[in-house]
Amino acid sequence: MRRSIATVSLSGTLEEKLRAAARAGFDGVEIFENDLIGSALAPRDVRDLAESLGLTIDLYQPFRDFEGVDEARLEHNLRRAEAKFALMVELGVDVMLVCSSVAADSAGDDALAAAQLRRLAETAAPYGVRIAYEALAWGRWVDDYRHAWRLVREADHPGLGVCLDSFHILSRGHDPSAIRDIPGERIFFLQLADAPLMPMDVLHWSRHHRCFPGQGAFDLTGFTGHVLAAGYEGPLSLEVFNDVFRAADPERTAADALRSLAVLEDETARARDREVQVGAGETRVAEPGDDRGEPGRAGPGRGEAPASGPAPAALTRLPAPTRAQGYAFVEIAAPEHAVPGVRAALASLGFRHTRDHRSKPVQLWCGGGARVLLNATDPQLGHTWSGDAAVTALGVDVADADAAMRRAERLLAPPLPRRRDPAEADLRAVAAPDGTSIFFCAQDPDERQDWLSDFTVPVAGGDDAARVALGGIDHVGLFQPFDHFDEASLFYRSVLGLEPDDGIELAAPDGMVRSRAMSRDGAAPRIALNASLLGRGPYEDVRGGPQHVAFACDDVFAVARAMRTHGFEPLRIPDNYYADLACRTDLEPLAVERMREYGILYDRVGEGEFRHFYTPMLDGRLFLEVVQRTGGYAGYGSANSPFRMAAQRAEASR
Ligand code: MG
Ligand code: MG
């Protein structure tokens, strides 16, 4: 299917928007009227530019407040429309979006509205223009796509059809399955947008918070499945009004947008396969890596057997989703001055520096079930790290690294070139939106893919490590620039198969912090994405905000004690926290006192309990955490995050 994007979804001038869409690989664009009006380019030039970029102009939008008016106003509106039709001929676009009227003085008379829409289609016909009528979620009289379709059917003109916009339908909670009742050739256009669930009026929600499919909470897979089952063959087009995208780098946004469509198409195709199987009475067999098979989510909805419907449109297929099964390692890079501190912290948590990489200044540190690679600055080897100490790479266990890499590349993840000598492991890695390298590590290692086999240099003696055993890596906290937050979430979802939680907002001393955890069924590899609303103070985007690596353990007190014995103090948590903890929980006073002693924080959800502590900042923005989960606790102790942030702030000012 062809892929299109509305110019309103991207920042910049019309010319910049067209270039960004073309560079990302879109086939076409919808031109948002104000983008054209504000452009220095004449319509002819816009047409030529689009053509030279290999883009078609698929829709001109929007034409407002047309129907349900008196005769004098109708004549005026038709003259207004004719000027636009002439303009569209110059632009070389043949579909105009007309959205349902919001005019206070319009009439809610269906017969009148249908007759006037017919007049509009008749007026458009000589120009070769067709009219796609869209029900706005906040339309004065028409705010439901089923109502829009009734008017279109009643108007009965071949040049009049509907435009379906997922936001207008799903934001109102309207059942999208009746889309299947609309003949595909009468669906003139399809606009796709997702959105997070927000209790606010639909107009404000739509104008500021739309996002690309897969970044919000709507079931776009089911929605698109209905539209395709109806026989729609036009472009899949993204129309996303979003405050952040309007200000972000348009090329980056366009790539994010195209990734979202690739994922949507793939998921829709997989859902359709299941639907066909169910429709044909076959027993549904889950595919490998298929975790989205709930029939309720994307199934036929109305019990139809679509195999007998129109020929299915060709959708992009991606290699099967990658199942990330855990962390192989986390890599920390540190500038020269920070290396001793990072080493000391790791040793105090029971890590041992066991081996070095055969050709790079990278140290392997093992602690219980966790492995940390310390990419240590070594000027003698010509290696320097100029920023603060930071998490620079995640090694993720996957069954098939090649397949994971193929899928990631199809999802526009930039592959990372690995300089290696012929004897070294052939590692597959891509760059995440925040620049973190993601290594796909085959669990069943063969000669060429086992990353551990590159660590051949034994370390004599090594650091004196604390005598305590950690479990594996529990989670990694990665700071994201605010305008890459949704992009990062879609990236980790589509490339690693992690599902985002609902997210929370934390009131930190230096501003609001948005946090969203990603995991597969609550298990490793868990990633917590954090972003600061204004990116000030410690959350400055250019510097990169705080990051952390959390290790699991069975006895958080034993680890804290060993760390202190080893000369490393946990982050100090104020006494006020423990006074509050004592009165809001039924923890024994002695237990609270022990927590206070070691700076251990506590959270409880149902039967699940979480005890955790932090190291101080090891350099400007990196810290470590140790966590103990019991009773099936699935969270991250986020209730404690504001206190951790305040403690870090206090520590920084000391
Ligand atoms: Mg729309
Ligand atoms: Mg954490």
Explain briefly what this protein structure is.
With 654 residues, this protein is of the alpha/beta class.
Describe it for me?
Helix content is 31%, strand content 23%. The radius of gyration is 28 Å and the shape is elongated. It has 2 domains: 282 residues, TIM Barrel, CATH 3.20.20.150; 328 residues, Roll (2,3-Dihydroxybiphenyl 1,2-Dioxygenase, domain 1). The protein is of the alpha/beta class. It has 18 helices and 25 strands. Strand 1, helix 1 and strand 2 form a beta-alpha-beta unit. The strands form 3 sheets. Strands 17, 18, 19, 20, 21, 22, 23, 24 and 25 form a 9-stranded mixed sheet that branches. Strands 1-2-3-4-5-6-7-8 form an 8-stranded parallel barrel, surrounded by 7 helices. Helix 4 packs parallel to helix 5 and helix 9 packs across helix 10. The chain binds magnesium ion (2 copies).
Q: Write down the CATH class of the largest domain.
A: Alpha Beta
Question: What is the rounded Rg?
Answer: 28 Å
Number of domains: 2
Determine the CATH superfamily of the largest domain: 2,3-Dihydroxybiphenyl 1,2-Dioxygenase, domain 1
What overall geometry do the principal axes of the alpha carbons give?
elongated
Largest sheet: 9 strands, mixed
Question: What are the key terms here?
Answer:
eight-stranded parallel β-barrel, nine-stranded mixed sheet, 31% helix, binds magnesium ion, 23% strand, 654 residues, TIM Barrel, elongated, alpha/beta, 2,3-Dihydroxybiphenyl 1,2-Dioxygenase, domain 1
